[in-house]
Design goal:
Elements: H1 2-41, H2 45-80, H3 88-116, H4 122-149
């Protein structure tokens, strides 16, 4: 009994440590992204103070839409027994739901553009999109390099 309790406590601490590290890594990546985009967009302090709350809200909204969409798809797939368990009617419904979530993302992106165009020039907005992709590519390269060295 003592061994089981000890094992459970150790597992609890290990899982909490991994969760904390995951959160710490996300925060670190977010800080790197903020610095990267601020530099690429050449934001002054006043513009940055207006821009970042709008950008962060947009990111949260997109993440919520994506998370909701993916969890809905996963839940339905699990209930159907995976792709093999789907009939054509269910597959059609899945495709329609995916399009609905894509439309919600597009609406969010349009709303963001309307808000951010009052803060940034269109040239900066274009640079923002390109810089986001560049940041993601750099992050993936670092991840691959780190993974290959292990």
């Amino acid at each position: 009994m003592k061994k089981i309790v000890t094992l459970l406590i150790v597992l609890l601490f290990v899982s909490l440590n991994l969760l904390a590290q995951k959160t710490k890594n996300r925060e670190k990546i977010k800080a790197l992204k903020v610095a990267f985009l601020t530099e690429k967009l050449n934001l002054d302090t006043q513009t940055a103070q207006k821009f970042w709350p709008v950008y962060n809200e947009h990111e949260e909204n997109l993440n919520a839409i994506r998370k909701k969409g993916m969890s809905a798809i996963k839940d339905k797939l699990n209930k159907s027994g995976g792709f093999e368990g789907l009939n054509e009617k269910e597959a059609k419904l899945f495709v329609k739901n995916k399009i609905d979530f894509d439309e919600k993302e597009l609406i969010e992106k349009k709303d963001f553009l309307a808000k951010v165009s009052k803060i940034l020039s269109y040239k900066q907005i274009l640079k923002l999109h390109l810089s986001e992709r560049e940041f993601t590519r750099q992050l993936m390269r670092k991840y691959r390099k780190r993974r290959d060295h292990k």
